[in-house]
Amino acid sequence: MAVSLALVVILGLLADYLFTRVRLPGLVGMLIVGIICGPYVLNLMQPELMKVSADLRMVALIVILLRAGLELRRDTLNRVGRPALMLSCIPAVFEGAAITLLGPHFLHITYLESAILGAILAAVSPAVVVPLMISFIDRKMGTRKGIPTLMLAGSSIDDVFVIVVFSILLGMYTGAKTNILLKLLEIPESIILGIIVGAISGYLLYRIFERYRLRATKMTINIVAVSILLIWLEETLKDRVALSGLLGVMTIGFILLEKSEVRAHKMSQKLSKVWIFAEILLFVLVGAQVNIQVAWDAGLQGAALIFIALIGRSIGTYLSLMGTDLNLKERLFCVISYIPKATVQAAIGAVPLEMGVKHGEIILAVAVLSILLTAPLGAIGIMITGNRWLEKNA
To answer: pTM for the full model?
Structure first.
């Protein structure tokens, strides 16, 4: 596994350098490296690495979400609260509805199978969006209006909403007794409990740091370890109670920033160094999950469905921003920021097939194709439009 890790790091760094030189996001190059080196193309990664791929990707995601939390200021959150809440569900509803209605005509599957596919595709990828928004915050791009924070908050809750809807639809298909009202109540339950557990964890960490005066490196190790435990807690309790571990992770960073800004900035700086390695792992290993042959099987009809559904998503995103002080270009930037798909699609795209859904292979193929098409295009679009359209603040 050590050799595979070395290969991932070297090729990931090389791809990042080459893509940055031609003014494209380095993460696009890393995704491509993962696809080429993964088990579905050249198969250069050892099986041991692929077995722990999900855990490594989760740790990398935790690192960037902690950085996001350590940049979330209360005044900015108060400003973006309503539109962030709208962004957490309306774009997904528009996209999911479009796929549900059009899926049977494009892919010759049932309406319920189309709805399941819509729930999978309707999730935006925090793995792509969050790092790019942190980059804009670091460079103070769009921060006066809180645009990067708006995208961070909305995209994080968006995944909670979509995964709950997905579980309801899958339960309906498999005939499992599913109380739809109780399932829908899991959305606010997951958000609220995630924030509460994250807030308690953040406060306890703050008290520990106050008492023992730990160095920044040890504080950073502690918050990463506690964040990993939060994700474990979510997985352990999932059959009893809904809890969003990722929202909890961001809340830890938010509480630490509120309680001690100096410490928060020191930990953010440490995490920014760790992110250099974590970023490579995250995007190369996400790319390694992409099966080119499966994506190819989705064909032009799958691609057409994805792009038509993205139009619906874009309309929902734009409507969510009505009443804000964002100008046209800033709203279009937000629309583009809600395009990338990767994390959720890679995680649950194969679940319908495993659960015996008749056209599970088609659902998986379109989910994989959505990663191939939207992750690079979305990332490139975010970088280009963000650098041109977001206001640079002093």
So the answer is: 0.86
